[in-house]
Amino acid sequence: MRRYALAGVPLFVFLGLALAVGNTLYREASDGYSPAALPSALIGLRHPSVNLPPLAGLGKPGLTNTGLAGSVVVVNIFASWCIPCRQEHPTLMKLAQDRQVRLVGINYKDDPQQSLAFLRDNGNPFAAVGTDPDGRNSIDWGVYGVPETFVIDPSGRIVAKHVGPLDESSLANEIAPAIAGAVASK
After folding, report:
1. What's the pLDDT tens digit per position in 9-57?
2. What is the CA radius of gyration of the chain?
């Protein structure tokens, strides 16, 4: 009898795993649950303190707390060595044309000369670029990796965070509604 009980263990393990996978798929389909989503504990809170020097040779200011005050600001954390950052760059160029927002960048753990070349070759969408050579300021923002994008309302609160490269879909479905909400809160 005991031998039959042990023979059923693999079946119960398989059924347990199938149930767990099925539950996850059901949750994804019904409520938009995504196990890959990285929530931010900073949503609704004031942005972390920022005092980053400018990217030398760019001719744009660095990033400070005063540069994030009083208007709707989109903060993009990027690096020239980051392939997804290169993929999202045309979307950032488009976003920079939106007069409702001020687009600023934090250059994450990057060689200044390569960053400068990247922005000169592909266009500079940023009104200001602060350099974060050791990544300490980005850690304060809760950055998992680059690129990441934050929307900040005029009072300095973070209202949205997008992890990964921006594209037309994420711009239309996540960033634009957050911007609209932040503009309405003025």
Report:
1. 777 777 777 777 777 777 666 666 555 555 667 888 899 999 999 999 9
2. 21
Residues 96 and 127 both lie in one domain:
yes
* Tokens of residue 134, six digits: 């050791």
The DSSP secondary structure of 79-109, one letter per residue, reads -TT-HHHHHHHHHHHHHTT-TT-EEEEEEES
Residue 148 inside a domain? The answer is: yes
Range of the domain at 169: 51-184
Closest CA to 101 of 127, 60, 62, 71: 71
pTM over 0.85: no
Q: Is residue 168 part of a domain?
A: yes
The pair of structure tokens assigned to 103 is 């687009």
CATH number of the domain within which 77 lies:
3.40.30.10
- Which of 159, 104, 153, 156 lies closest to 132 in space, CA to CA? 104
146 & 87 share domain: yes
Which has the higher per-residue pLDDT, 132 or 25? 132
State whether 104 and 141 are in the same domain.
yes
CB 138, CB 49: distance < 8 Å: no
> What are phi and psi for residue 97, nearest 5 degrees?
-80, -10
Measure the CA–CA gap between 163 and 159, rounded to whole angstroms: 14
- The DSSP bridge pattern shows strands 128-132 and 63-64 to be unpaired
